[in-house]
Design the sequence.
């Protein structure tokens, strides 16, 4: 039986004005702190719209065969030793349609974290709509679907919680992607709108990638 890859979703509250130093310290320490346990940093993001200035979002990926409990325990030591961290929380999740592997995103841009709570009865159609809409979405908006993960525990009985991470070149394209132009874009939007209608709840926050390799985001979003 093939092991299901484990990912951890981390929310980190840094001390006031220390979000960048905290993020860079976590990234630098990851190889020693979690590497031996099979973990690596998939990405670290900072708030753009919707979350506090000094909150960081991080995702770590773990080798096949590393259990979620073992990953969370190893990550706890990494986070508790981190510079300037006030609080932290980690949740286990597994990939669904994407990502196919744990290759980290490296291009700067507007990264939207969208959360869904979907009734189990609607979940199969939800996935089918995602799969059908993504190619047109990516072609129309110079955007990428990084991943859609399922959290280990639902927030309500009979519900499935998922996290969708998408990248666009900038915030203007995030807005543009909500306003379809032409028949092809309207078809994509119809699929995405139907997906939202299947959910009990959905919400989004936008971020930029601190661990990007091409450029550093210096905008003052907060």
Sequence:
């Amino acid at each position: 039986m093939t092991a299901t890859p484990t990912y951890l979703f981390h929310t980190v509250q840094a001390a006031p004005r220390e979000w960048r130093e905290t993020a860079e310290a976590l990234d630098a320490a990851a190889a020693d702190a979690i590497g031996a346990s099979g973990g690596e940093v998939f990405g670290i993001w900072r708030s753009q719209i919707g979350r506090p200035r000094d909150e960081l979002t991080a995702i770590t990926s773990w080798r096949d065969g590393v259990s979620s409990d073992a990953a969370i325990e190893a990550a706890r030591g990494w986070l508790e030793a981190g510079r300037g961290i006030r609080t932290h929380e980690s949740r286990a999740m597994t990939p669904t349609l994407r990502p196919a592997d744990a290759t980290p995103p490296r291009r700067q841009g507007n990264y939207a974290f969208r959360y869904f709570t979907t009734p189990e009865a609607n979940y199969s159609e939800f996935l089918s709509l995602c799969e059908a809409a993504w190619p047109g979405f990516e072609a129309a908006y110079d955007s990428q679907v990084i991943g859609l993960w399922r959290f280990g525990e639902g927030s309500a009985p009979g519900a499935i919680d998922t996290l969708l991470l998408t990248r666009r070149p900038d915030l203007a394209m995030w807005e543009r992607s909500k306003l379809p132009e032409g028949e092809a874009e309207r078809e994509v939007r119809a699929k995405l709108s139907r997906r939202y209608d299947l959910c009990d709840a959905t919400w989004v926050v936008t971020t930029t990638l601190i661990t990007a390799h091409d450029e550093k985001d210096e905008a003052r979003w907060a």
